């Protein structure tokens, strides 16, 4: 049944839906890990978190990255006129999250450039094709 649904989507939208869904799942898994304590940032990084709270970091990860990427995955499957703007906003939020990590934690991880490349990929997949003009409803 799901394959029939994806066959009606153009390949670009199907890829965007799957990729954004993967990023959302990844963000929610990280969020759950931070909230439950299963994922530790280490004492030095946790001491730099606001209120030294990995729980707050987990909640913010879910809200800033997980939720917007979920919305992108859902709007990609529907012909939503705001899908391009939603996708761009979610990509900016993911890049902002990575920059906030670098500024607050002052630590570098291999996941950060992977996330930035993923955000650029999401933005590229969600952008309208070149030469395609969209009008926004007000």
Q: Describe it for me?
A:
It is a single chain. It contains 6 helices and no strands. The radius of gyration is 17 Å and the shape is elongated. The model has no long low-confidence stretch (mean pLDDT 87). It has 138 residues and is mainly α.
Structural class: mainly alpha
The major sheet is characterized as:
none
**Poorly predicted ranges:** none
Mean pLDDT: 87
Our Rg estimate from Cα atoms comes to 17 Å
Element order: H for helix, E for strand = HHHHHH
Brief sketch in words of this structure:
The chain is an all-alpha fold.
Defining traits:
0% strand, mainly alpha, 6 helices
SSE layout and pairings?
Blueprint: H1 2-8, H2 11-36, H3 43-48, H4 54-77, H5 83-105, H6 111-126
